[in-house]
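Field log, afternoon session.

UNIT: design team B
ACTIVITY: writing a sequence onto a fixed backbone
BACKBONE:
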């Protein structure tokens, strides 16, 4: 754990917190009755801390950006892909405590597990050192590591951004439906609708099916974030 602390740039007063952040649910399930708890509660707290710190960072850095743009930028910064990259840079996979099945199934490299562990580490630092310590860590390992280009790329990919917003809640079904293709072959216009749990949330048109889906996703994002 000392090596991990060096990578984090933070020394724990209570190192048990860092150890707890590495306990996957599969390990806890295999050790029922021992008092071992998974990092799921810490993940929950870390997600909240990360959201606050990232929101504050974007709010201050982009004083003229509307709420919808800030929401999409935050979604890009805190998505699974970004957190997985942080986990890989820190080498969190080396320290995870996994159940035998998850271990054999490649859990140490699984992006979702590593992303969750990253949030758990943020929670551990917050619980040990307070908000300033957590803010410093999040800025150091995520917000100040040249992520702006990634944010811009994800913001332009409206389908990815919409998926990330929708995934904040469990059991959400996002689908795209091609409604029509009109006009001559050399100048067809495609119209697509995107639905969430069977209800339409956006519609868009474009010169290709892909463009129509992107426009539908953009319309859905604008509606969900209140952008006019």
């Amino acid at each position: 754990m000392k090596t991990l602390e060096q990578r984090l740039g933070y020394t724990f007063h209570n190192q048990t917190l860092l150890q707890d952040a590495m306990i996957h649910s599969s390990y806890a399930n295999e050790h029922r009755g021992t008092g071992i708890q998974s990092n799921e509660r810490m993940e929950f707290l870390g997600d909240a801390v990360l959201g606050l710190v990232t929101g504050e960072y974007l709010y201050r850095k982009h004083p003229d950006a509307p709420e919808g743009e800030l929401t999409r930028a935050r979604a890009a910064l805190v998505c699974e892909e970004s957190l997985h990259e942080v986990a890989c840079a820190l080498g969190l996979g080396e320290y995870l405590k996994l159940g035998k099945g998850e271990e054999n199934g490649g859990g140490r490299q699984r992006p979702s597990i590593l992303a969750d562990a990253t949030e758990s580490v943020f929670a551990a630092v917050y619980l040990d050192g307070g908000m300033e310590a957590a803010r410093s860590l999040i800025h150091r390992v995520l917000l100040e590591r040249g992520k702006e280009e990634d944010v811009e790329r994800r913001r332009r990919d409206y389908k990815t951004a919409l998926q990330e917003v929708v995934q904040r809640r469990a059991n959400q079904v996002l689908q795209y439906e091609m409604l029509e293709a009109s006009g001559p072959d050399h100048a067809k216009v495609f119209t697509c609708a995107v639905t969430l749990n069977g209800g339409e949330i956006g519609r868009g048109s474009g010169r290709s099916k892909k463009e129509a889906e992107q426009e539908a996703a953009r319309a859905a994002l604008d509606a969900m974030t209140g952008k006019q």
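LOG NOTE: The longest strand covers residues 174-182.
NEXT ACTIVITY: expression trials, pending approval
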